[in-house]
């Protein structure tokens, strides 16, 4: 993976997807960044580096475990369904013995795969959750499309210990006074996971009908550019969640907290394929850009991973999937958090990324 978004990107595709297509290389994110912005962030960091992090945490995405033989994505990328839980087990062992004791772990979604036999969905989700609970500290989950292929929200959220009202899965937490983490529900407006007659499902169906003319709503054929994101295996952030996010960012600004936004679906085209983006990523980022507190956005879903810095200096890091690790390899991270940077120390197939920023909120 190349850090500046020039690598070919592969989105996480649902099993109903019937499209075969080719991806072209993406333009470098540096095309729309000024060198001065990056250098300024680096100089600010260099002037006051601290030797010890404020705290550290573990990070993993797209385990997508299933007790089935290995397979391939619709683009031919190998997937190691049984091995992925071994990657998680090795990650847990590493996190529990890390020299900087991790305060928590974040799972960026899709803990089981859509090909998991439906009569095994509940037991499979429980099996993976049990592995996460071997970590000696809090684990913060978010939901992905593959989670919702297996279980409805009513069964899934209690297993993931996501305690919110009305079946929604967005929340925030503050591990230290200086930082706040925001977990977005990227399938708030979605055609999967909700009952078919639920208002959020009906809104999603309308979005897909208006934005995607194809009979197969998982196909982006004839859609151009970012419009290719309007696929059934993606989703959006609803109005109530947007109001909540605005309130959280207001409060974080008052408290002079730096914010890390976590979302299963990527929020910046420079870090991911267009087919993998949140439906209303532009609306969410327009809101985020009204504040100076958000420093980093973390995402999963686009299995090859990606990295960009947007026009406001916010770092976007999409994580490489545990699912696509051949036996003997890993993809998880140890993250060290400082006042002026967040350093992702990747394991094996997960690339390390040092994200410097202006510490002022």
Strands of the widest sheet, in order across it, are 5-4-1-12-13-14
Low-confidence spans: pLDDT under 50, at least 5 residues? Answer: 1-47
Question: Mind summarizing the main beta sheet?
Answer: 6 strands, mixed
Number of helices: 8
Radius of gyration: 19 Å
Q: What does the secondary structure layout of this molecule look like, with pairings?
A:
Layout lengths: L34 H12 L8 E6 L10 E2 L5 E2 L4 H14 L6 E4 L13 H12 L6 E3 L3 H6 L2 H7 L11 E6 L2 E5 L15 H13 L27 H16 L3 E6 L17 H8 L5 E6 L6 E4 L5 E4 L12 E7 L3 E8 L4 E4 L5
Structure description:
Its cofactor is Mg(2+). This is Manganese-dependent ADP-ribose/CDP-alcohol diphosphatase. One of its GO terms (molecular function) is manganese ion binding. The chain has 361 residues and is an alpha/beta fold. Helix content is 24%, strand content 19%. The strands form 3 sheets. Strands 5-4-1-12-13-14 form a 6-stranded mixed sheet. Helix 3 links the parallel strand 4 and strand 5. 50% of the residues are buried.
For the structure shown, list the relevant keywords.
alpha/beta; 6-stranded mixed β-sheet; 8 helices; disordered N terminus; Metallo-depent_PP-like; EC 3.6.1.16; ADP-ribose diphosphatase activity; EC 3.6.1.13; metal-binding
Concise overview:
This protein is 24% helix and 19% strand.
